[in-house]
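Researcher: Please predict.
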Amino acid sequence: MRRHPRYEAFIDCELAGDRGMRTSGTLVDISLGGAGIKLNGWDGSELLALGLSHGEQRLILRCEVRHAQPLWGKILLHTQFTGLTDEEAEGVQRIVEDLRAEEERAARLGGRGGPISFRRLRERLRGKPDGAERVA
């Protein structure tokens, strides 16, 4: 079982890798412990600096790649945050709390809420609205 639940994010981000990579990507999910990031390409960097903005806050978070997988012509990196300062950890906490509140609001209004499922992530990354795969 996961240590921290993940929440859908879909936030634009920038990445710098320990092998010289500099690219943009999309933060597709986040938890208190790490993030899922969709990229067009990856140079094998194991240590990353992840830059992202959420509301008024701008964060640069150090993370370590735990798993990489090809995903419909892109790369999905699963990362773990490492060496966060108290301020950075508080910033991640604010993002997670905001996303959790959004999902709870959506659930109350009849939408889907709660932690992200792999099927929902797959549908979103393919550009299909939730449930579109099930419609004939």
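Model: The beta strands are 7-17, 22-30, 34-39, 47-54, 57-71, 74-81.
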